[in-house]
Amino acid sequence: MTAVPSPRSEPAGPSRTGRTSLAAALLSGALGAAVALLATRQEWSEGTATVAGGAFPLTAKGSDVTGVPAALAVVGLAALVAVFAVRRAGRLAVSAVLALSGAGTVAAALLGASDSTALDEKAAQASGDASATVGALSHTAWPYVAAVGGLLLLVAGLLALRYGRLWPAMSGRYERGGAPRPRRTAAQADPDRPEELWKALDRGEDPTGA
């Protein structure tokens, strides 16, 4: 007596991969943008300027050093949202923008990690000497935190490039003007037309009645 094989459900590999990659990209992209924006508002470097009264402490935030990481983080976040509003070639292009935003954020943050231009300018203003430079210069870990945020954006972009074709897109009903397309209603029949009069007679109705 042979056993009857039980029916097997078809593997949902592509669907599961699409959902997993989508969740990972959303989490990575949103977290990366938030981390990069937060890091640029923190203190990146500190030092002193020599003035008449002695050493004057100076600090510089990430936004003082460079505005590139914050700007690219905003661009990356916008691209992450736009991925679901486009399809095919458009989705590929937006995914590339997302990945490039992440890579640019990483590069700008690492370059700013050792930059002293912002503090040199503050030292010149504090001392009244245009040639003055900052002394006792030191840097914090926040530039590297911003780089980690950019790396997360880059990961989201790479996931979108690789698996974006499996992700859902905005419904076509809402693509124009953000509102559902109105349904077409059938044109009202004109009771005075001859063919309508004959149809009324066939139904046993009096077309001349009120």
UniProtKB/TrEMBL annotation:
Q: Mention any Pfam family matching this sequence.
A: Trp_oprn_chp
| Top-rank taxon | Bacteria
| Matches recorded under InterPro entries | Trp_biosyn_TM_oprn/chp, Trp_synth-assoc_CHP
Q: Does the keyword Phosphoprotein apply?
A: no
Bias regions of kind Basic and acidic residues — which residues? 190-210
Q: Residue ranges of region Disordered?
A: 174-210
Q: Does the keyword Transmembrane helix apply?
A: yes
Sorted alphabetically, the keyword list is:
Membrane, Transmembrane, Transmembrane helix
- Where do the TM regions start and end? 21-39, 67-86, 93-113, 141-161
Protein name (database record): TIGR02234 family membrane protein
